[in-house]
Structures are given as C-alpha cells and as structure tokens.
Amino acid sequence: MTTSTTTTLAEPLMSTNYSLRASYYCLNATGEVPETTATNPTHPKAQKPSKTTEKASEVQVTGNAVQVPRLKLSELNWKNRSRFLEMMECHSFVVLTDLGESLERVHDQVLQDFDTFFTSDDDDWKNECISKQIYRNENKTPMWYCGYEHTSVRDCFRVACGDMSRLVWPSPEFKDHWLSLQRRMEKICDRALSLTVGYEIAPSHARSDENFSVCYGLHYPNIQGSGQSETENVFEHVDPSLYVVEPVPSVEGLDVYDPHSKQWLKAEKVCVPGKEIVLFCGKALARATEGRIPGTLHRASYKKHFALYLATVVNEAKENWGINFAYASLFNEANSKAWKFPEPQEACHFSIATQSDMLTLLRKQLDMLGLQDVLISGAEQKNPGESLFTLTTVIADVLPGVDSIGKFNAHGSDSLTPYTGMERDKFEVLTSKKRPTWDFQYADEDTTGLTMAENIVRDINEMKLAAFVCRQWGGGDHAI
C-alpha cells in the first residue's frame, strides 16, 4: 500500500508579477486499508479517539469568526492520536503549525529555485527539461508528461516520485532542494496515515509496492493575465488521495470547506502564509475509514486573476490594436442555474455575492491600468425581473459591487420568448441617466417585427431604455 498524500506549497510572492505554487501528491493503488490492519497490533502509545468529537473540537464559531483546528507539527504523534483523529473526523482537515526553521528554509529554497527557473528568458534551458516520460496513475491511466510543461494558463514542473530516472532537472541545486522538501512532505503524510490506521506503517521510500507519488510546481504569470483551462479541476472537489498536505499560500487560491462550521475558509486569510500547513484528506481515506473521516471538499479560487485577465485584454486592445472599449461586461445571465455544470456552457453561474466581488475587483484592475473611462456593465440577467432581483439583493445586503456598475444590462427575451413581466418600471427606479440601461439581448420568432416593435416601445417608456440590441433569428438553433 502506498501512502496517499498531497502537498501544495505557496510562499509569499517574491515578485508581484506572478504566483508560485508547488505540490506533492502520494497516490495509493487501491485506496483501501490493507488486510493486515486487523492483525497489526495497535501502537503501544496510541490513544483511542473519543466519541465526543463535537465537544473535543478546537474550532469555535462566533458570528463570522472561525477558529481553525490547529496542531503543532511536533504534536503529530502517538501521544496526541486521539486529539488528531477527533479533529479530522469533525473537520476533515487540521492546520499544522510551528513547522520549524529547517522545513521553512527548504520551502523558501524551493520557491527561490522556481523563481529562477520559471521566470527565466532562456527557453532552451526550460525546453531541455521537457520529458517524454508519461505518468500513469494507479489505474494505469496516462495522465501527463513529467518534467517541464508550458501552457497559456501556467508553467508547470512535475515529478513522478516512483520513477525519477528519466527526469532532467533544471540544476543540481534545484534537485537537492526539491527532494529535501519532498522527503519532509512524505514523512508528514506517512505519520498521519499511521495515526489513522493505528500502527506504524513503513516509510513511502522503503516500501516495495509501486509508488504513485507526484510532486509538482506551478507558475501563474499574472502580469499577462491568467485564463482558466477548462480541463483544470479548480471547482469544489475532493482529491482521490489519502492524505493531502498543502502549505498555506499568501495569495488567493485555496478554499477549504469546514463541515463543522459549514463555512468555506480561505487558507491565506485564516492561516499564517508560509508558516503553516493544511493537512486534509481525500476519497481513498474516506473509503479506508468507512466514512469516519470525510474527504475534504476544497476548491481553487482565482477571482483576482480573472479580473486582471479581463482588464489586461481591454488594455491590450487599446494599446496595441487601437480599439477603445466603452464598456466591459463580466457576466452573462450569471444567476441562471442553466449554466451550472454539467449543462451546456454558453454562460457561467455566479452567486450574487461573487458577482459583487468580481465587479469591485474589475473596477480596481481597470483603474490600475489607467482605464477609468471604461465603464462596467452589470446585472446582466435573462430578463428585467431577474436583473432587478440582482440589484435589489446587492443593495439590500450592502454589497459593494453596485458602486462599480456604470451601465445596467437586462435581456429582453429568454431564448426566443420575449419578456412580458411587469418589472420594467421598478427596474427604472434603481437606474438613472448617469447609469444608462440597455436591453442587451432580444430575440423572437415573429417575422413581422410587430412583437419586437411592441417591446422596444415598452422598454423605452417603462424602463427608460438607452439602447436596444436585437439578435436576428437565423432559424434552427442559430441566432445572429
């Protein structure tokens, strides 16, 4: 059985122009506790977990304040097994603190190596580190090439820990620092697994079974904006592994769900970046413990990257292509549940609170690039009633995003069904000449044009419309 581990490293940025992350994964072949569990004697110093998990929890929720479950790295031992398991069963994660100077130092060294390698202009050096070795997971499924990889979203360096014989390292120092950190991460995960199963397991490097461990480093070039690959698993998910170790980043990225407080926790806000490690678990551990320790739901969040990407496109269009945008629009029918995965994606679903956050971030990024004259379109929903609901919710909840909206958009038709509701006049009350309103998308199947004419009149008179945008019906499922 191979220890199942993940380690993601993120230190305070050494430059404001990029984000760095490094990760270490140890994946097991079966995801099951070995049959010898019953015959292996419990460690003599092991404590049995208490049945009063809720009472023993070290997380308290007072209003919006959440105290995170913490355990010193030196206390991840048999003496504290009961305490550790109670935390994991209650929250599915623990934050390890007091990592020690040695671990923090090697962590720093690895990130310095990333800085040197990923930001280098020497493409020949990077390309020499591209490997033909394909990593296959525990199911023998080919996943990716080891070594260096460049995409439009990020740069990456991956190591298959079970077979590093064909890997080309960027430098001897890079290799030494990497392996030093990797061994420390393996040790943490092996210890966590031992405490869980109740007996001392052999270290990852000493076992005879196949090692599916993976270690990788990531580089997001923020200065150019950062798109999001459709194939990247950044939505809320549980990893396939046993234990996961992720050093707390100083940049936005890791959100962990605490089932005890029923809240999403932003690691960089509730923990100490670069000084603490989040230890959580995956599907394999949940199966191995028969659900006693649940898999940790987590997600990667890149709101700032998204806002920066859009602002950068607007700026590039102005500076290099001579195109001046008057408006920038973040969303298309963001309230609609029709755009939630796995439905066909013409748009994307965002909660209203997230819409508010994104509007504020985009305004800030546009201003930083000297694009104060570019206004932001907001509340663009599938009909005036839905747009009205968005605006009233933002205002009622005192969300700051409404202050960033320079133009209000509403769709006058839901697909090919014209809006016939009575919300137009209410929508007009919330807007003004300073912030004009557009019927941004209209379509119907009436070839006479009478239905469209009627809706234009209603929009102008009742909603005080400033512009009317019509999609010409092209037949079938096509709109022009």
UniProtKB/TrEMBL annotation:
Gene Ontology MF term list: hydrolase activity, hydrolyzing O-glycosyl compounds
Annotated region (Disordered), positions in chain: 33-57
Source taxon at top rank: Eukaryota
Name listed for the protein in its UniProt record: Isopenicillin N synthase-like Fe(2+) 2OG dioxygenase domain-containing protein
Lineage: Eukaryota, Sar, Stramenopiles, Oomycota, Peronosporomycetes
